[in-house]
Amino acid sequence: MANPWLALDAGADPVERIRQVGRAHERFVTGETSAGPPIRSVVADSWRRSAVALPGPDATAPIELSDADLESYRAAHPLARVLPIFRDLLGGLAEDGEHLMAVCDAYGRLLWVEGTAKVLRGAEQMNFVPGARWDEAHAGTNAPGTSLAIDHPLQIFATEHFSRSVQRWTCAAAPIHDPATGRLLGAIDVTGGDHLANPHSLALVRATALAAEAYLRGSLTPAPTAGSVAALGRNEAVLTFEGRRWRLGRRHSELLVLLLAHPEGSTGDELGVGLYGDDASPVTVRAELSRLRRTLGPELIEARPYRLRAEVEPDFRTVVRLLEHGRVAAALEAYGGPLLPFSDAPGVVRLRRLVDDRLRAALLNTRDRGPLQTWLHSPWGADDLQVWEAYARLLAPADPARPLAHARIHELRAEYGLRPSASEAPRMARRS
């Protein structure tokens, strides 16, 4: 197939393809291993993920947000600002009596589903409704959920869906990102009949996603912050909000950092995995969240999903934003050390590595000696062999700092059990 993201090759018979893929799907879900018609690799990979996550091909997407919770959540979601763009570009499809337009968040939760009453009634039969969760782990292979999983626009055609109840539909979806951070915000989807399996529907949703990102980029303004969080280089985060100051314990510091890392909101289960990994206990997580809410007050933290109500700027996000704008020296100045350095919570460890890796990558690419010197003179950078080597490469042969830098490189390579580099070996031989 020329384009792996398209469901049908040019000239293919959609009816025959439905039969072929349907037979392959039945063989897959019943465990048969006999050869069959070729299935797109993006679909086959998704089937495998779906089979691990779901009890079977008759699973139904669950409702996670409803009524007031849904209204408040989507009103605050960044994609609410581009809903007029979605309606302008895709509204004609949603009004033609054959299609649905749907918008979901980064977790696959449907925020808006629009179309005629008849088509909406048909979608209700498979729980394709606002508030339902349509990521692969809860609904199997489908265009919005799979586009989020692989972060790429694609079509899912009829029997390519993992869940049998969805196989009479065809859909095309594209992910949407925050232009300031690159963070995944959600996806835009068009769902309808088999005729959607053409290049035009995929191009249309992709163009709509790009238009939404362009609008968000053009409307970027510095957000007023009501508070700040210091969590770099300390094991107990400090939250400052409207003149008040909280020094939080270790577990509450980890919870706050995880909430800040996902401003769109998190479920209790997601926070549990971020705190404890696979050993998460829902009861323990709820108890910790309840205690944190009592400490900070409901005006700061809301539930279902859990998120911060106020605009709070954490120091680790400040560092990342400065790096995104190429301000390496300023980012290094804002960096107070590793994020909650003694925390072993999986979500915090991942975020810590992300921040540190981005900062080190920027340092290793800079031609400015100043930030490198600052890093190497810090407790967390003093033994950073890669940065020492990058620093030495910037030193002129006659620079008095050059011998000291090479001596430190030699010491570190010996400590790490590495051979002297090609440039170090002759120098060390002369010294001996």
Describe the structure concisely.
This protein has 432 residues and is an alpha+beta fold.
Explain what you see.
It holds the Pfam family GAF. GO terms for molecular function: DNA binding. This is Transcriptional regulator. One of its GO terms (biological process) is phosphorelay signal transduction system. This protein is an alpha+beta fold and 432 residues long. The protein has 3 domains: 14-218, GAF domain (Beta-Lactamase, 2-Layer Sandwich), CATH 3.30.450; 227-312, Winged helix-like DNA-binding domain superfamily/Winged helix DNA-binding domain (Arc Repressor Mutant, subunit A); 395-432, no CATH class. The chain contains 18 helices and 11 strands. It has helices at residues 14-29, 41-53, 67-76, 83-94, 117-124, 136-139, 143-150, 199-218, 250-261, 268-276, 282-296, 315-324, 328-334, 346-365, 369-376, 385-393, 401-415, 424-431, and strands spanning 100-105, 110-114, 154-157, 170-177, 184-192, 227-230, 238-241, 244-247, 301-302, 307-308, 312-314. The strands form 3 sheets. Strands 2-1-5-4-3 form a 5-stranded antiparallel β-sheet, with helices on both faces. The chain has a 4-stranded mixed β-sheet with strand order 8-7-6-11. Helix 12 (315-324) runs parallel beside helix 14. The termini are far apart. Mean pLDDT is 88; it is low at 428-432.
Provide key terms for this protein.
432 residues; alpha+beta; Beta-Lactamase; Arc Repressor Mutant, subunit A; five-stranded antiparallel β-sheet; four-stranded mixed β-sheet; 47% helix; 12% strand; globular; disordered C terminus
